[in-house]
Each structure stands twice: as C-alpha cells, then as structure tokens.
Amino acid sequence: MKKFLLLAVFFGLTASMFSKSIAGKEFPDNLKIGKYNLVFNGGGVIKKFLFKVYAIGLFTESKTSDANAILNNKPYAIRIHFIHNGVTDDKIKEAWKEGFHKSTGGNVAPLQKEFETFMSYFKGTYNENDTYQFEYVPGEGTKIIINWKVQGVIPGAGFAKALAGIWIGSDPRDNDVKNDMLGK
User: Fold this and answer.
1) What are the pLDDT digits (tens) for 105-119?
2) Can you say how many angstroms the Cα of residue 179 is from the centroid of all Cα atoms in its chain?
C-alpha cells in the first residue's frame, strides 16, 4: 500500500509540473528565465507536408494574444520539442534562413552577424525528443539552448524580435500555430 501511495504522489506531482501536452510533448505551466517568471501562453505543432516536425510552446510574463506586445522588447521563451527523426542541420539552417527572411520582411542585412552566430549553433541531425529553448531577457539578449546545453547569448532586441517573429510575426511560419501560440 505504501508503494502505491508513493507512486500516486510522484505521478501527481509530475502531472502538476507539466500540464500542457502538445503532440505528446510536455510543456510546463511556468518557466523562470533570469528574474522573470513566465507562464505558458500557448503552443502548437509545426508540420512539413504531412509530417509533424516539432511541438512548440510560447512563454510570456502574462497570457496575451497580442503578438506586438511580445515582439516589442518583452521577455519571452520559446521551447521546441522535436517529433520527427532525421532532421539534418542543413534542413534546419534552410528553415531558419526562410523564417528569418519572412520575419524581417527580407531585410536580414542589419542582423546578419547575429544570424550567422545563431546558425553556427546547429550541428548534426536532430531527432525525436531533441529540444531547443530560446529565452529572451531585455537588456541581456537571447539565450540559445539546445538539448538543455547553453550554446550562447545573442544580444539585441532586434534579433529577439526576428526570432519570435518566425512564429508570431506578421508573416509567420504557420498562421494556425501563431493563433495557438497566442491562445486565440
């Protein structure tokens, strides 16, 4: 009986820590980055053709459906959990280039150095359960975390806006996922 009670408590605590499930990937209700306590704002699934590639979640200071409020120098975190296996760094980098091009309205040049630094962090092949996390703290920059290891911090609100803009900007990767991330 004691073992049963211990298991029930363990699974109950685990379930309360991660209450958002997207395509079988778990996202916490809350996330602390720097001095900020963020809440899960929303998330969705990015697909390529008929394949689910990754689940994505957005964390903000408070729930909001206003993308501009997030993009204008507010702290945020974006977490990506891969669903698909065998995504090569070449495919990832091509997707980043396309995303940044759309996010900046084709004006990538002012952020070229930051984009090159960002791209340099992606090496190898990504598979199911690999994770990216991007944490933006105003005045500090965007921390790039791949598989729970910090790769570096890219300074500037402009880069943070361009990165988040891939999913929640005016020309997002997927309009339905944008709406899901913004809780619409």
Assistant:
1) 999 999 999 999 999
2) 15
